[in-house]
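4.2 Preliminary Data

To establish feasibility before requesting continued support, the project team ran the inverse folding procedure on a target of 322 residues. The structure was first converted into the token representation described in Section 3, and no sequence information of any kind was made available to the design step. The complete token record follows.
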């Protein structure tokens, strides 16, 4: 019950939940150290509304399909504040990819990237959940896009969504490719790896280059959560190039969120945006199905096997009385 006695929640039956690299940081207590186990995990889900509070019924209906972003998504049913839900056309996992991954790429490149036609945009983990959107939005801005990946299959996927120069780091040296093919440097870097990749990107930035940090997955499973970077000469490097490093954390940009979702949903419906989903069908154990497979899906993400956004399907419990 909300303050003042008004019910403002909707109860949502899950169909799909999204897997994110930051699930590790959250469960390790790095986002909010005051939260102690046991606590609910997971950041995003999509499903049908099965019950409504009084004020929520003014804007939602039972049976309506909504997506939502918030803590506690790894559940069969979730009580969600109505203001955190986004109506979507159907319970397709493709729409779920937009909630965190798509919105992160859309807003960060718009607000911090300041993309201009012809600029060189470098996307790390480009075939992943958020990288796939960074590639597409940079191409829509008429930029030249370079993307890193770990297999020829992923390189093929990147080409299919418009990446001009996929780099399979298992067979090519990223540093040498950038040095030889892009001697003037990188105008924008969309960086989610951290550690050595961050150092490499800093050294290859162009004059007035912008490096956007959206994560540092290489360190998430370490004791400290951060891999060391060589920052000793960083001030000089930035000064010499009038370059900048900008951090992006989606919760700080929620004022931009609804407009971003509206535009992305329109693009998705028109077939103008590829929303690649990986449900784990190609894993030895098969599709990610049920909450018990969440841990397997997280492991799969950290093995770097996925193409697109990893999503887990949640079956409807037969014994449910809702």
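Position-by-position output of the design step:
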């Amino acid at each position: 019950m909300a303050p003042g006695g008004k019910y403002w929640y909707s109860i949502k039956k899950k169909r799909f939940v999204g897997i994110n690299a930051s699930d590790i940081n959250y469960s390790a207590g790095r986002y909010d150290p005051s939260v102690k186990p046991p606590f609910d995990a997971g950041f995003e889900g999509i499903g049908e509304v099965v019950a409504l509070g009084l004020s929520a019924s003014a804007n939602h209906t039972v049976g309506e399909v909504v997506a939502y972003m918030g803590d506690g998504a790894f559940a069969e049913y979730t009580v969600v504040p109505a203001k955190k839900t986004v109506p979507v056309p159907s319970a397709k996992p493709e729409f779920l990819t937009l909630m965190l991954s798509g919105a992160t790429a859309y807003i960060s490149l718009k607000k911090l990237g300041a993309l201009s036609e012809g600029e060189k945009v470098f996307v790390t983990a480009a075939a992943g959940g958020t990288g796939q959107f960074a590639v597409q939005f940079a191409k829509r801005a008429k930029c030249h896009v370079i993307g890193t990946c770990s297999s020829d299959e992923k390189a093929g996927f990147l080409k299919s969504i418009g990446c001009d120069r996929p780099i399979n780091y298992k067979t090519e040296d990223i540093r040498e490719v950038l040095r030889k093919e892009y001697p003037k440097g990188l105008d924008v870097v969309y960086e989610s790896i951290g550690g050595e990749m961050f150092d490499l990107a800093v050294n290859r930035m162009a004059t007035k280059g912008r490096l956007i940090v959206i994560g540092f997955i290489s360190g998430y499973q370490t004791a400290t959560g951060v891999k060391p970077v060589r920052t000793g000469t960083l001030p000089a490097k930035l000064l010499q190039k009038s370059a900048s490093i900008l951090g992006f954390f989606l919760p700080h940009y929620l004022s931009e969120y609804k407009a971003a979702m509206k535009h992305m949903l329109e693009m998705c419906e028109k077939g103008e945006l590829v929303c690649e989903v990986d449900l784990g069908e190609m894993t030895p154990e098969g599709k990610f199905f049920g909450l018990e497979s969440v841990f397997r899906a997280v492991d799969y993400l950290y093995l770097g096997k996925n193409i697109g956004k990893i999503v887990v399907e949640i079956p409807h419990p037969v014994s449910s009385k809702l």
